[in-house]
Design brief:
Blueprint (H helix, E strand, L loop, with lengths): L1 H43 L6 H26 L7 H16 L4 H24 L5 H20 L4 E2 L6 H5 L1 E2 L2 E2 H19 L1 H11 L1 H6 L4 H27 L1 E2 L7 H11 L11 H20 L6 H18 L1 H9 L1
Antiparallel strand pairs: 1-4, 2-3
Helix pairs in contact: 1-12, 1-14, 2-7, 2-8, 2-10, 2-11, 2-12, 3-4, 3-5, 3-10, 4-5, 4-10, 7-8, 8-10, 11-12, 11-13
Amino acid sequence: MTNAHHTEAIVTKPARSKGFIGRHFGVLSITLVFLILFIFFSAATDVFLSAENLVNVARQIAPTVIVAMAMTFVITTGQIDLSVGSIVGLSAATLGIWAVSGNGLVALVLTLAMGLAVGLVNGALTAFGRMQSFIVTLAALTALRGVALFITEGYSTPIDSPFLVPIGQGKFLGLYTPTWIAIVIVALAWYVFNHTRFGRYVTATGSNAESLRRSGVDIRKIQMAVLGMTGFAAALAGVITASRLSSGSPNSGTMFELEVITAVVLGGTSLMGGRGSIMGSAIGALTLGILSNGLVLLKVDVYWIPIVQGLILVIAILVNTRLFSRFSRSGS
């Protein structure tokens, strides 16, 4: 009897290990990449490991982390949102315009509500209009940037509101306010994604939408809700960016969607839908943050940074579609 149990333990332990690696391959691989880059830049530059530099990196990457949380929900449902960068620009511009009225709280509420409304319109056109999210948000990407440039005539609007400026520049317990906001958003997104019925519906929408629909769930509302989330998150990112710079620029968030999608895919979320990781997306965003910071500290030409990020996105998609499926099969 004892020998039988002993034999069973020997047989099942490797299988369990493979299963664990298969389920968490995305998070494990991006964590390994993050650690390698962290150690490399720590050894290559004297400034990288300083507390001041790390605190600044955490603040700069906060908008990407925040939007990557919502984008994880969107991509897990099998959709994509290409309009987040333009929503950041429009939100920054409108925040500056509305802040001129003198009431920072009203400007903040109106800006966040506008972002949520834009996201819900994207979602309604996709879910109820039966249009592909790629097409809808690609059109929104162009149109919203045009609106931002039109209402500002291309100029930035200074922001000096004592209510709004601390959102991007305030500090608490050694960390800037955007970092604390990002930490709260990550915790909230992790809980909703992993421990609520809505989170399970999001994964099921991407993996087997027809079965979910037959069980009585309106998947169109799920699809619309997650695109509303990215609209709200992008507006929040626009508020943080504008308040950090004390200026609402319509050009804020240019190419931001590429950075967010790269972070999410790096973290192991499948572009085909049905599989996502909140922690993976957060670590993916942090990896992009220290990569950009480390390359700047090494005095690499800034024009190389988006090139490197684009190459990383291609490699991530390759790993995502090839290696993950292999580990999943071996672990199952």
